[in-house]
Specification:
Number of strands: 14
Number of helices: 18
Strand order of the largest sheet: 10-11-12-13-14
Largest sheet: 5 strands, mixed
Distance between the termini: 114 Å
Length: 544
Amino acid sequence: MPEFEVEVDAEDAALADLCSMYWATEDDGSFSFTVKELSERFKQPAHKISKTVSESCYARSSSKSCIECGRGFIYRTRSEWTSGHRFAPTRCRTCVESEKQRLEADRRKAEAAMEAAISEHFEVAEGEAPIRAEDLDLPSALAVAALFEDGEEVSEGVTVPVMERGNPLTPTSDLNLKLLKALIDQGILRIHPSSSPDAFVWKDDGTLDNQHYPMLASYYLTGVGDVETRLREYLKGLSQIISRDNWPDRWTDQFSDFWFDLAVSECKAYLVHMLKRHGLDFTPGQRTEEVFRHALRWYSIGQMYYFIWRAARDSAAYAARERVPAKQAANSAITRISGDVDRAYAQGWDVSVYRRDSRLPQSTISHILFSRALQLEDAMAYSPVDLPVRRAGLELAWEKIDFTAFERLIFQLVVETEGYENVDWLMHTNAADHGRDVSAVRLRKDPLSGHSSQRVAIQCKHWLSRAVRDTDANQAIVSISHWENPPFDVLVLATSGRFTSDAIAWIERHNSRGQRPIIEVWNDARLEFLLNERPHLVRSFGLR
């Protein structure tokens, strides 16, 4: 019995003969004709024979058959047949394809059942109180806007899953999850029924397990009306207060903490990015968080990029030079950053501001905060002024002292504080002192490089009836500039009252230029905190 049953598609008799002779076999199973013989007989190049045959016919084996349907396996070329000897299939292509189609149909059926369960369980809720930006805290208000925006394209009321975004929501996945969970826990967002079944945990019986993966789900805003209208109304309200000048008071109080969270996240992302470019994998931990929070008190994000760039380069060199494990080399980066930052601050380095790396695109929430809310010309050079909020129980009776007593209090506070030397007080309140009420030398210690110092001038403003304005800050800089032999490194504006938002914005712009002197602010809340650690001063000045 011949090994193959040949089915010829061609009507050409010569082509049919070629196919029959190509697949003809002897009793021992060998082919009757070589490809070379067929080439000479049919006047075709040898390398084209198999292709011509495969396009014109197929051969069904009489000795090798599918274990399911029992039909012989189909071959198009001799090479398929010889490889079948080495890797013998058990099922034919038709049966395999039929099973694929059956499994696909089962999958679609199961997916349809899951989608029906999701739609039933997560119907779009109606009649709830609308979400207004002014009612939220600052991180939540901006996170809502960022979630519904991807690459400056605003959704139609339903978010793209965070894991599927084209532009990152925040710089790091841990901050993504933190903000997302906060919005869910506050009832600001609800899961939309269009979410993929992959976003949920399913029981063995195919029912929902009341758990989901936050980064894989889609969300909508609670409220009334269709989801697109809810989002449109929310964004309209946010647009009216998003500029820093229009922020609610509590947003101003929350800003510093939020900026630090975002800045730390930016630094983590850049460190991971730079180490990866050097072939080193790194997962930031608590130590990384602490080092960056410490450093960002003194340096902007762009300046931190400088320290990170150096550390990644030196860690890669350490791995190559010392042949240490990649993990050890990567972990050494954060130690290098910590040391460099402390050394730079102690020695007064002029730290460069690095630009954003184009290979690490800015996150949506960073763009909203830096460009729309703060309207910064250069977010990488920006550092916020840290203004603490007054705490209940720490308030002092500032009205019980006059201008002279306030200056004497600041003088005494500095004299008693470790790290300040040569403290001097100009003994004429409101005199033509060129803006210097108290001066001192601030010492900074570095265990590796020794000691360094900064000349500090403190202007005292015992103003209870009005806040310090931007014009006051500007005048203070003009006044202190008269002291040039040597000039002051730091100007502290100390007030028993508050600073206007315009003053804070002016000071931040001044500091971002890196010009001397850098301005520090001591408002009523900071002074109350410092003085409550020195109760003898509170008593002696009759402040409580």
